[in-house]
Specification:
The chain is an alpha/beta fold and 309 residues long. It has two domains: 263 residues, Ribonucleoside hydrolase-like (Inosine-uridine Nucleoside N-ribohydrolase, Chain A, Alpha-Beta Complex); 35 residues, no CATH class. It has twelve helices and eleven strands. A nine-stranded mixed beta sheet has the order 3-2-1-4-5-6-11-9-10, with helices on both faces. It has a two-stranded antiparallel sheet with strand order 7-8.
């Protein structure tokens, strides 16, 4: 199951979430059972509309989409987005995201992987809705946080997804879900170059042409804003999807992670990566953190899967 705040298709927006959805469909080792949507990069209505539209573009209109949280647990939600004129507005499935997360996980205990690439509000609500949710999830992969260095954006102490709803991450960690955390320490190192985006934009197939055009616009915006490095954009969310079938793409370390919910350090995380003492004393290992990545191996896997799709 993919839980997403997808914004690919919204003018000037991030594109990596759309590539993550495409990768989840193209990887032969993944059976995408459902997509759940959450506010984040844009508002919930826009996320849901763009997700349904992208699934149609990818020839996967049969994958059910369930709308979820439209705001953080304790804070205001984002302003309305800007869905391009002419984008079809399709109705999502009737069951809300948190309920379908609980239902699908409960129907196959230990067999369902949840990949969360937006704020963790839907996952936190599922954990609160069903006390057995944590025990029944096979694996939870989260794109979020930064664990080896400070968050790079001025005025935002935490990485964007965690900053949006730090209380949700706290609930997830306290519920005993033990997530695999794929943060900026590794995702900033896997890139889509301007040259590759141009190749995609010139591709005759519908998805590469659409995604390449929007990727070029996103790289232009990053350069104008002086963010990251010129000539490319990070593929944050696709890396979180990639490690579902290729956990070897990153180096994992068991950790005890805590998150700040105070306004001054909202979303900042602290990870104790030291090995647990032999006697078992000390903080419980409540997460697994990605601390290194093989960018070349990721690019090879990502490119091969999308070519297959």
């Amino acid at each position: 199951m993919l839980d997403t705040d997808l914004s690919l298709g919204e003018p000037g927006s991030e594109v990596d979430d759309g590539f993550a959805l495409a990768l989840a469909l193209a990887d032969p080792g993944i059976d995408l059972a459902a997509v759940t949507t959450v506010y984040g990069n844009t508002d919930l209505s826009s996320v849901t509309t763009l997700t349904l539209d992208l699934l149609h573009r990818l020839g996967a209109a049969g994958v059910p989409v369930h709308a979820g949280a439209d705001r953080p647990l304790l804070r205001p939600g984002p302003p309305p987005g800007r869905v391009p004129a002419g984008t079809p507005v399709r109705a999502p499935a009737s069951t809300r995201a948190a309920a379908v997360l609980v239902d699908l996980v409960r129907s196959a205990p230990g067999a369902v992987t949840v990949v969360a690439i937006g704020p963790l509000t839907n996952v936190a609500l599922a954990a609160r809705l069903d006390p057995g949710f944590a025990a029944d999830v096979g694996r939870l992969v989260v794109m979020g946080g930064t664990y080896l260095s400070p968050a790079p954006r001025a005025g935002m102490p935490g990485e964007f997804n965690v900053w949006n709803d730090p209380e949700a991450l706290r609930i997830v960690l306290d519920a005993g879900l033990v997530p695999d955390l794929v943060g900026l320490d590794v995702t900033l190192r896997v890139r889509l170059t301007r040259e590759r985006a141009r190749e995609m934009a010139a591709d005759g197939r519908p998805f590469p042409a659409f995604a390449g055009e929007h990727a070029l616009a996103w790289i232009d915006r990053l350069e104008r804003d002086g963010e990251e490095r010129a000539g490319s954009c990070a593929l944050h969310d696709p890396l979180a999807v990639a490690v579902v079938t290729r956990p070897d793409l990153v180096v994992w370390r068991d950790a005890h992670v805590v998150v700040s919910t105070d306004d001054a350090l909202r979303g900042a995380v602290l990870a104790d990566l030291a090995p647990a003492p032999d006697g078992g004393d000390g903080p419980r290992r409540n997460a697994r953190v990605a601390v290194d990545v093989d960018p070349a191996a990721f690019t090879e896997h990502f490119t091969a899967c999308l070519a297959r799709g």
